[in-house]
Amino acid sequence: MFDIILYQRTLKRGRKLLASVESRLKGSGTEYRLHIANREKGAIDIVKSLTEAGAKKLIVFGGDGTLNEVLNGIADPANCELGLIPAGTGNDFSVAAKIPKGMAALDLILNGEPKFTDYIQFDDGKRSVNIAGTGIDVDILQRCARKKYGGNKSKYFFSLLSSLAHYKAVELEVSADGGEPVRYHALIACVCNGSQLGGGIPMCPDAVIDDGKLELIVADSPPRRKIPGALVKLMRGKVLTLPITHRVSCTSARITVPSGGFLAQYDGEIMACESLTAEIVSGKLKMFRG
C-alpha cells in the first residue's frame, strides 16, 4: 500500500501527471491512498497520523517544501520507504537524488529498490533533506514569495539580484563537530546534504546524499564591486572557489546569531529559530532514487 501526499495547490499544475500516476497504479493493481493537504503544514499532520498508524510506503507528489513537510511528519524515518514524484515549483533535491521528472519517477518507485539516504536532524526536532541555512537565502525566499509572475528559477534569480543590492550581512558564529565557534560577517551560512537550492542554484555541486557528511558553507560579505563576479561564480557552480567562501565537511554543525533569534530556511520553508544545531543522520531513511 502506497500513501501519496500532495497539496491542493499542486493539483493546479500537476493534475495531468497525477491522473497518469493513478492510472498506472490502478493498471498494475497497486494499492494506494491519496491524501490532499489544504492548509500550511497540513502534510506534516497527515504523515504523522499515517506513520503512527503503521504506514510505511510514502510517495511525495510535489516539490522541496512538500518533501520537507513529509519528512518532518514521519514518526520514525527508519520505518519508512519514501518516494518522490517531482511536481513542485522547486525540485532541487530531486537533482541530487537523481530522480527523473514525470512518469519515470513512478517507474523508479515501482521497479527500483529504496536506498539509504542521509537527512539532517536539528536539535529542536526539525529535519531537512536538502539545504538549511540563514542569511541572504531567507531574504531571497521572502522576496520570491512576493513575486506574482515568472518561473521559480527566474523569480529566485531576480530576487537574488535584489537581495545582493539591499541585504546587509550579519554577524554569525559557526562551529563544526563541536569545535570552537568562528565569527563571520556573512551573507549566508548553511548546512547542505543536497547540492542546489532556489530551483537550480548550485550551492554545493559535489554534495553527496549518502556519504554520512554534512557540508557547512559560509560566504563572507564581499566588497560591493566584487558582487557581480561572485554572482557569476555562483550561477556557474563555482561559488566554492571564491576566497570569501568557507566549506567544512563534518557530521555536526551549529550556526548562531549572537544578537539573538533569527529566521532560517529549511528546504525553502522559513521558520524562526534560536540556532541551527544540526547533525547528519545516515542508515535510517530509505528513498527510491537514482
Offer a concise description of the structure.
With 290 residues, the protein is α+β, with helices and mostly antiparallel strands. It has eight helices and 19 strands.
Descriptive overview:
This protein is α+β, with helices and mostly antiparallel strands. Helix content is 30%, strand content 33%. The chain has eight helices and 19 strands. The protein has helices at 11-27, 42-52, 64-73, 92-96, 103-111, 136-146, 152-166, 227-235, and strands at residues 2-7, 32-37, 57-62, 81-86, 115-116, 119-122, 127-128, 131-135, 170-176, 182-192, 196-197, 201-202, 214-220, 245-250, 252-256, 262-266, 269-273, 276-281, 286-287. Strands 6, 7, 8, 9, 10, 13, 14, 15, 16, 17 and 18 form an eleven-stranded antiparallel β-sheet that branches. Strands 2-1-3-4-19-5 form a six-stranded mixed β-sheet, with helices on both faces. Helix 6 (136-146) packs across helix 7. The longest helix is centred in the first third of the chain and has 17 residues, at 11-27. The model has no long low-confidence stretch (mean pLDDT 92).
